[in-house]
UniProtKB/TrEMBL annotation:
<protein>
    <submittedName>
        <fullName>SDR family NAD(P)-dependent oxidoreductase</fullName>
    </submittedName>
</protein>
<dbReference type="Pfam" id="PF00106">
    <property type="entry name" value="adh_short"/>
</dbReference>
<comment type="similarity">
    <text>Belongs to the short-chain dehydrogenases/reductases (SDR) family.</text>
</comment>
<keyword id="KW-0560">Oxidoreductase</keyword>
<dbReference type="InterPro" id="IPR002347">
    <property type="entry name" value="SDR_fam"/>
</dbReference>
<dbReference type="InterPro" id="IPR036291">
    <property type="entry name" value="NAD(P)-bd_dom_sf"/>
</dbReference>
<dbReference type="InterPro" id="IPR020904">
    <property type="entry name" value="Sc_DH/Rdtase_CS"/>
</dbReference>
Amino acid sequence: MKGTAFITGATSGIGEACAILLASNGYNLVLCGRNQPKLNQLKNKLSQHVDVHTLCFDIGHTDQLKEITKKLPEAFQRIDVLINNAGGAHGLDELDHSSISDIDQMIDVNVKGLLYITRMVIPCLMRSNGGHVVNISSVAGKQPYGKGVAYCASKAAVEAISESLRQELVPRGIKVTNIAPGAVNTNFSTTRFKGDTERAARVYQGFSPLVAEDIAETVLFCLNRPSRVQISDMTILASAQSTATTIHRADL
């Protein structure tokens, strides 16, 4: 058994792909998300192979986070891997036309939620013989673009958190990896466009985007490096993507 991985945003997209892949590689799991039926479904599927515990809460609601780690059973009190995956984009508008609630949601989940969860899980990581924090950022945190001010800012914050956290945790024997995906075909765009599936589908037309499993495999690669190796930062783009906003769409 490889140890225990604590995954936020585990009920869909990259988080779900990480859960499935890590379970197949012998990791016990703490799966976090807002959808209890989906958490139950994943637990039933993956607990055939590994031990799984679920925590249902909204990472954007700080009042729900205060006692999270205290709810972990004894067998899950030692965490070997924290994957901060929960996050998302809401809206694609110039700042003066952006919804205040969208801005709040992105800051509360992408930044504050990540900080709070990490703060509470660090003591569990300290019980491991060499823990590992993996933050799922975005190419938008490195290459900000118009109509994405709040989202880009939130992901730039994740980049800064990863750098600062590494300086704090490396002396404690804990690695920190920042992974910045480009265009990944998950429910990301459907969420950004408020459930408009047709508009979301157009984001991925004319090229082959990344899929969630590509990022999960990258996470596993980083976790499997020898103890002497720490992957500090990785940017992963689709073959047709050259920058955050530049994609070669051959069929259009």
